[in-house]
């Protein structure tokens, strides 16, 4: 029986279709409080997390660092930390421009009852 990880590694070795992407979820409670959650995904498998308090990556698999050295990973974490601090500040500074209107339709609501 193949685990999903072994299957993914096999796909990688065979050069099969694989995507890597990063997810960012930023929560802004008010003008001063914000939290950033981050994760790294290889197709459907999460291989990275993000410790938002310390601003460090969490490696969920022994091979999550890929070919990066510890030093390179530290540099990447520095980059992400700087980006997240800048992003948070930009959003908080422009909070009035970013206000979204949430449409409420009583007609649609009634129809679904
Ligand atoms: C902002 O939101 C945080 C988290 O919900 C809360 O703890 C804090 O008291 C709030 N601050 C103000 C000024 O409303
Ligand atoms: C990653 O490391 C492996 C084994 O050391 C090597 O064969 C491969 O070429 C490296 N890949 C990249 C993109 O550096």
TrEMBL record:
The keyword DNA repair does not apply. Keywords: Glycoprotein, Signal. Residues 19-101 form the MHC class I-like antigen recognition-like domain. InterPro entries: MHC_I-like_Ag-recog, MHC_I-like_Ag-recog_sf, MHC_I/II-like_Ag-recog. Residues 1-20 form the signal peptide. Pfam families: MHC_I_3. The keyword Transferase does not apply. This is MHC class I-like antigen recognition-like domain-containing protein. It comes from Moschus moschiferus (Siberian musk deer).
């Amino acid at each position: 029986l193949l685990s999903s990880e072994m299957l993914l590694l096999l796909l990688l070795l065979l050069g099969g279709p694989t995507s890597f992407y990063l997810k960012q979820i930023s929560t802004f409670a008010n003008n001063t409080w914000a939290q950033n959650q981050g994760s790294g995904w290889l197709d459907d498998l999460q291989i990275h997390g993000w410790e938002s308090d310390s601003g460090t990556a969490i490696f969920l698999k022994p091979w999550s660092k890929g070919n990066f050295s510890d030093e390179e990973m530290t540099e990447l974490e520095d980059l992400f930390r700087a980006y997240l601090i800048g992003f948070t500040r930009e959003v908080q500074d422009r909070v009035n421009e970013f206000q979204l209107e949430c449409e409420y339709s009583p007609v649609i609501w009634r129809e679904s009852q």
